[in-house]
């Protein structure tokens, strides 16, 4: 939401939605699969919409200058230079993607959540972590990590220190997940309903939970649906990954791992 | 000279506001002082070495309703130096309402550098002219996580009253 409390909107023509690729230097197959998808989509004229966690971590826009950061930003750059837009929402792993990344790629940031229209149906787009409301420890972390004042303080420290700190947070989060009940790490139905209601829409697309699915739900007596995007993994078994596309009025999930 | 007293549970802080360099921000702050918005609110976020933030929560960490956001006047040349006061906001540069913070260090990385989302910076609109020792005591309090919030003082630091001392 912006300062006046209105939901941001984005106009999409023929989008493909992906999220949770968690790209990192030590998963070269996943990175290559991403590069290939971007090349295919570019030639077909699809807009690419990334709903968070494109990267496993992003410690600041210096990441765009080297390694996997340079490979991925270069790939997106050629995509946008060919005239097809790329939209990027921040995820919990890459919330420090900043103006430097936008300049290096030509991508446009999306607010989380934001509203669009797909096949004539108003749709809410989100990363999804905001709806995991049972995980209060995470929500406290999210609130601070997304605070612009805190981000400025953090970005002031040396890159190596930022990477180390973010690695610590990831390791702690992975360890925590093993102890936590599954439902705590999923979205809560009440939070989803509240988000749909306040946006005045009956469809939502999000990622984050790594539980790809199409959920149908009843929202105040009307049909509503929630699409959850898949996470990507092409370097270890089980291989998985895919995207959501819009064909006419229909949404369809495409599995890239088969 | 425009001065405001923040009478806190840890002592009184006197602020001198810069009406000339930050007219809209000062007017907005004074309005909140006059209508009693800051009475019985907390310094709810304390990060020693950085800043102390307040003006948006009542005791018990109850968030107060926000008002109309104001234009960011951070390009006014005032710097986020130690003991200056600036408006807090979301990532939208023009989203400040009532919450403010007092810098407890020279935070040059909060200054305006360019008129875009990432570089607009935080609008300084005054400075602490009395009670710097109160600010120093507040910045040193122990903090904890409280529900959704980090860096919350263990013992509440309350702004009991805020009053305009001179205009």
Task: Give your account of this protein's structure.
Chain A is globular. Chain A contains eight helices and twelve strands. By secondary structure, chain A is α/β, with parallel strands linked by helices. Chain A has a single domain, classed as 4-Layer Sandwich (Purple Acid Phosphatase, chain A, domain 2), CATH 3.60.21.10. In chain A, 36% of the residues lie in helices and 22% in strands. Chain B has a single domain (2-166), classed as Beta Barrel (Cyclophilin). Chain B is globular. Chain B is mainly β and 167 residues long. In chain B, a hairpin with a 3-residue loop joins strand 5 and strand 6. The A-B interface holds A 2-4, 98-99, 136-137, 139-141, 143-144, 146, 148-149, 152-153, 155-156 and B 47, 50-51, 53, 69, 88-92, 94-95, 101, 109-110, 116-119, 122, 145, 147-151.
Question: Largest beta sheet of chain B, briefly?
Answer: 8 strands, antiparallel, barrel
Helix content of chain A: 25-40%
Walk across the major sheet of chain B and give the strand order: 1-2-9-7-8-4-3-12
Poorly predicted runs of chain B are: none
Q: Which regions of chain A contain 5 or more consecutive residues with pLDDT less than 50?
A: none
Helix/strand/pairing category of chain A: alpha/beta
Find the biggest chain interface. Answer: A-B, 19 and 26 residues
CATH names the topology of chain A as Purple Acid Phosphatase, chain A, domain 2
Number of E-state strands of chain B: 12
Count of runs of 4 or more consecutive helical residues of chain B: 2
Q: What is the string of helix and strand elements of chain B?
A: EEHEEEEEEEHEEE
Total domain units of chain B: 1
Helix content of chain B: 10-25%
Can you tell me the CATH topology of chain B? Cyclophilin
Number of strands of chain A: 12
- CATH homology group of chain A: Metallo-dependent phosphatases
């Amino acid at each position: 939401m912006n300062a006046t409390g209105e939901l941001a909107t984005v106009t999409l023509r023929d989008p493909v939605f992906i999220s949770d690729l968690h790209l990192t230097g030590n998963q070269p197959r996943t990175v290559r699969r991403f590069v290939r998808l971007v090349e295919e989509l570019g030639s077909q004229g699809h807009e690419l919409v990334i709903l968070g966690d494109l990267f496993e971590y992003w410690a600041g826009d210096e990441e765009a200058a080297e390694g996997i950061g340079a490979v991925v930003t270069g790939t997106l750059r050629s995509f946008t230079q060919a005239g097809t837009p790329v939209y990027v929402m921040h995820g919990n792993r890459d919330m420090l993607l900043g103006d430097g990344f936008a300049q290096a790629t030509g991508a446009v940031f999306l607010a989380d959540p934001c509203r669009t229209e797909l096949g004539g149906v108003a749709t809410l787009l989100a990363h999804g972590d905001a709806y995991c409301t049972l995980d209060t420890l995470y929500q406290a972390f999210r609130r601070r990590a997304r605070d612009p004042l805190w981000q400025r303080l953090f970005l002031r420290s040396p890159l190596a220190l930022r990477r180390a700190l973010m690695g610590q947070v990831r390791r702690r989060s992975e360890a925590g997940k093993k102890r936590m009940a599954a439902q705590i790490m999923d979205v809560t139905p009440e939070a989803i309903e509240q988000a749909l209601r306040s946006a005045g829409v009956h469809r939502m697309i999000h990622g984050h939970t790594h539980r790809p699915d199409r959920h149908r739900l009843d929202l105040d007596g009307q049909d509503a649906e929630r699409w959850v995007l898949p996470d990507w993994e092409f370097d270890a078994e089980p291989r998985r990954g895919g995207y959501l596309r819009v064909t006419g009025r229909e949404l369809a999930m495409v599995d890239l791992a088969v | 000279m425009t001065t405001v007293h923040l009478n806190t549970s840890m002592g009184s802080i006197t602020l001198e506001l810069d009406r000339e360099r930050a007219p809209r921000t000062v007017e907005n702050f004074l309005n909140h002082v006059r209508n009693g918005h800051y009475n019985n609110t907390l310094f709810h976020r304390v990060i020693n070495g950085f800043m102390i933030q307040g003006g948006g929560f009542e005791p018990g960490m109850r968030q107060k309703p926000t008002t109309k956001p104001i234009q960011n006047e951070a390009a006014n040349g005032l710097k986020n130096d130690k003991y200056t006061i600036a408006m807090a906001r979301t990532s939208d540069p023009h989203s400040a309402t009532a919450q403010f913070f007092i810098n407890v260090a020279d935070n040059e990385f909060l200054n305006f550098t360019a008129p875009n989302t990432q570089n607009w910076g935080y609008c300084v609109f005054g400075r602490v002219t009395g009670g710097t020792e109160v600010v120093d005591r507040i910045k040193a309090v122990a903090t904890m996580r409280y529900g959704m919030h980090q860096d919350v003082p263990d013992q509440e630091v309350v702004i009991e009253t805020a009053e305009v001392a001179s205009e």
